[in-house]
Design brief:
This protein is an all-alpha fold. It has 2 domains: about 80 residues; about 130 residues, no CATH class. Strands 1-2 form a two-stranded antiparallel ribbon. Helix 6 crosses helix 7. It is elongated.
């Protein structure tokens, strides 16, 4: 089975776990999946093997702690040490898709905003290449940092009995709001340097939609 099929099967089988076993396994699953350097295919295969073994033990009245010990993090670390790293040729397309998605959604959002605003005010459809590059750089940094920060929050909350979900949500929301403010400030105060070109909202919306569709089809392949 490929990665998508393994994840889908994993989601289905996890519903059969008891609440106690599900919490134990879910923490371990997230902890392993957050190790981006590891081979995704082999990580999902190992997670499926652990889940099948856990379900079998559950039928015999055993708990996850009975089978894998009272320290799931240590057990997960042992598994991680045995898993190979992801190949570079598979990592590069992953980051390329992230950048592509940022560009596509930026174009789509710009097109929608210009369409809405043009119904009420006159909108300047010209874009300055330098301003656009700086805004794109700011958005990329914001998205990258936000993803890293949220994953770090999740990582640090694993294997803890009492998690303060509300506090984690507040922290994530604060970082998101602060990052968006920085992006808006960069877009507002970056000077126009170099050439500017006309980019109507129709072109922006269509180009963004086509790029998103290409990335979506490529991901499904």
């Amino acid at each position: 089975m490929n990665v998508d099929m393994l994840i889908e099967e994993n989601n289905r089988k996890r519903e059969l776990l008891t609440p106690e076993n599900e919490k134990y396994y879910d923490d371990m699953l997230i902890y392993i999946r957050l190790q981006w350097r590891l081979s995704e295919q082999q990580s999902e295969e190992v997670l499926m093997e652990i889940l099948d073994h856990l379900l079998q033990g559950q039928e015999e009245g055993k708990t996850a702690k009975d089978m894998f010990g009272h320290n799931p993090k240590a057990f997960a670390d042992e598994i991680i040490e045995q898993l190979p790293n992801e190949k570079k040729r598979e990592i590069i397309p992953f980051y390329a898709r992230i950048i592509g998605n940022i560009v596509s959604w930026s174009l789509i959002i710009r097109g929608i905003l210009h369409l809405i605003l043009s119904q009420f005010i006159e909108v300047n459809s010209e874009i300055n290449l330098f301003q656009m590059a700086m805004s794109f750089l700011a958005i990329t940094c914001f998205v990258s940092f936000s993803i890293w920060f949220i994953l770090r929050l999740v990582h640090n909350s694993l294997f803890k009995e009492n998690r303060n979900i509300k506090l984690l949500t507040i922290k994530a929301g604060f970082v998101g709001a602060a990052g968006m403010a920085v992006v808006l400030l960069v877009a507002k105060f970056t000077p126009e340097i170099g050439p500017s070109y006309n980019l109507p909202w129709q072109v922006s919306l269509i180009a963004g939609a086509i790029l998103w569709l290409i990335l979506f089809v490529e991901k499904k392949r």
